[in-house]
Specification:
Layout lengths: L1 H23 L9 H8 L20 E12 L2 E12 L1
Antiparallel strand pairs: 1-2
Length: about 90
């Protein structure tokens, strides 16, 4: 029990030193890149989303294109099917 208490006290002291060193570390200068300043200030890039046509119409036909792609995975290369479809 005494050994466990000593280990916990040692771990707490190491943690306190690490936190103190992190707080004493110098911060980044204010002249960083504009993108970094935006992320720090909480500004998000504006993305415009255009709505798609909801109903393709009564005579619409769905067109699809399919192909095979080699994907490199940890177990080795794997051939996977890919498909892209649209209404015309």
């Amino acid at each position: 029990m005494l050994k466990m208490t000593a280990n916990l006290a040692l771990a707490g002291a190491i943690f306190a030193l690490a936190v103190g060193a992190a707080l004493a570390a110098p911060t980044q200068p204010e002249s960083t890149a504009p993108a970094a300043q935006d992320s720090v200030n909480g500004k998000r890039p504006r993305v415009t989303i255009y709505p798609r046509r909801q109903h393709p119409g009564p005579n619409a036909v769905r067109q699809c294109r399919s192909w095979l792609v080699t994907e490199y995975r940890v177990s080795g290369p794997v051939i996977t099917p890919q498909m892209r479809c649209w209404w015309q």
